[in-house]
Specification:
The chain is an alpha+beta fold and 490 residues long. Helix content is 22%, strand content 34%.
């Protein structure tokens, strides 16, 4: 039974606005290292076989379950670290973690008879990766013996933002080196007084959302406790279309799938005292510097701090200040005589809050949604499978953008009803199609695309193509695009 990593990458990360946006959420950001959180999740398993031959793990390429809109981000970030996925399963819409794991289990059983699934959210950070790999090796042995294993984080404070797991009697089998316990029960997010009592007792762990179990066992359990989820996922999966590394579900079938978490759908039924014919539920305590980076205050905790407790990232200056998180992406930021603040500056938005209020940042994204604004959805630089574009000027009947097209990539063959475009090449080489003509442009050369013309922009070169686009017309929205051909199937 090899180990099948399953990466759940469906989160939106709204509490880390304005760095995290709906179209580019926190799992795709390098928040705690030079790699993004998704890349760190995949990379932290490197060396597992060499370090723990006793488990004879035989690790498979990762399966990733993500929002369909994020598919190219996932593919590109895994390509950059040289970790091609077994498949990227595309959810037409989010339905929580139980359906996501069911889809992954169905996919896993197509490539191996019954692999051990290691289920990990894509947006967690772990400092002690060696300790984590040791716990995974133990969990793999337990799962091979028929257990459903989860990891509980040894709490460092009376946290009210996490659910808890109460550990029961010790549980062990031959070959397992670390401690493991029967899972007594799950507990909802507690009040502060209750959380303090949990910490004092030593019997409670934070719920990490990481699980290890056999693929066939998960499919049996979800069918037993949530047959509606199991049946809907099976139908949507059976009708799925393979598109290279992407697995596209049947959207109309998946749309009716109920939404539920792994905990509610299955795990709570397996707690101690459940039916005798159920598999054992086991929790392994983890003290590995784990964080779900669920708020700005959590990011401050896990980042390296200076002598005054400040975390400073970018062009920022602090004076007579302590215990602040200051991030400057676009302009110089100065913080003087302040403490316990979160200050995050991006090209199109600035956040200022106290660490105690960091959980309330979601109120900003709710406001932006109500006002039908874009700052919760996109950064100023918008990523596309062919590269990116950035709005650098906007006025009545005109808009100026900076386009970056990666080598060998191209925009769709398209047409606009309401706008004309002027293109000026800054660097690189552009191949332009405009109606019946196809021609090359190089640095400092330009062309004009009239309203209604069928056109395409390509980068045939080996370096990035940088281009300034000036749009003019009565309507400049991104939805004024009629696509005739598109290599990315949009």
């Amino acid at each position: 039974m090899p180990l099948q990593p399953v990466i759940l990458s469906g989160g939106s990360g709204t509490r880390l606005w304005p760095l995290s946006r709906e179209a580019y959420p926190k799992q795709f950001l390098p928040l705690t290292s030079a790699h993004t959180m998704l890349q760190e999740t995949v990379r932290r398993l490197n060396g597992l076989d060499a370090e723990h031959p006793r488990a004879a793990i035989g690790q498979l390429a990762p399966l990733v379950v993500c929002n369909e809109a994020h598919r190219f981000l996932v593919a590109e970030q895994l390509r950059v670290i040289g970790q091609p996925p077994a498949a990227i399963i595309l959810e037409p819409l989010g339905r929580n973690t139980a359906p996501a794991l069911t889809l992954a289990a169905l996919a896993a059983t197509q490539t191996d008879d019954d692999p051990i699934l290691l289920v990990m959210p894509a947006d967690h950070t772990i400092r002690d990766e060696t300790g984590f790999r040791a716990a995974v090796a133990d969990a793999t042995l337990l799962a091979r013996a028929g257990a459903v294993v989860t990891f509980g984080i040894v709490p460092s404070k009376p946290e009210t933002g996490y659910g808890y797991i109460r550990q029961g009697a010790p549980y062990s089998i031959a070959g397992v080196n670390g401690a493991a316990y029967q899972l007594a029960n799950f507990v909802e997010k507690p009040a502060v007084e209750v959380a303090e009592s949990y910490l004092a007792s030593g019997d409670y762990l934070w719920n990490s959302g990481i699980f290890v179990l056999r693929a066939s066992l998960w499919l049996q359990l979800i069918a037993r406790f949530r047959a509606d989820i199991a049946n809907t996922c099976a139908s949507a999966f059976a009708a799925a279309q393979r598109d290279g590394e992407f697995l596209r579900l049947a959207a109309e079938l998946f749309a009716v799938c109920p939404s539920d978490s792994i905990d509610y759908a299955v795990m709570e039924h397996l707690a101690a005292g459940a039916a005798a014919d159920l598999p054992p539920a086991v929790v392994i305590p983890l003290a590995v510097g784990w964080s779900d980076v669920g708020a700005w205050s959590a990011l401050w905790e896990v980042r390296e701090q200076d002598a005054a407790g400040n975390v400073v990232d970018g062009d920022a200056f602090v004076h007579d200040a302590h215990d602040n998180l200051v991030i400057a992406q676009h302009r110089m930021v100065a913080a003087i005589g302040v403490h316990d603040l979160i200050v995050v500056e991006t090209p199109d938005a600035v956040l200022v809050t106290t660490k105690d209020s960091a959980q309330d940042v979601k109120a900003v994204t709710q406001f932006l949604q109500r006002e039908q604004r874009n700052e919760h959805r996109h950064h100023q630089q918008v990523h596309r499978p062919w590269g990116s574009y950035e709005a650098i000027g906007l006025g009545a009947r005109y808009q100026v953008k900076r386009l970056i097209v990666k080598p060998g990539e191209s925009l769709s063959l398209q047409m606009h009803h309401h706008r004309a475009e002027h293109w000026v090449v800054v660097s690189g080489t552009a191949r332009v199609t405009c109606d019946e003509r196809t021609f090359l442009l190089t640095e400092n050369q330009s062309t004009y695309i009239p309203v209604g013309s069928t056109h395409r922009l390509e980068n045939p070169g080996s370096i990035l193509l940088e281009l300034i686009e000036v749009q003019s017309g009565s309507y400049l929205g991104e939805d004024d695009i009629v696509r005739f051909e598109d290599r990315y199937h949009r």
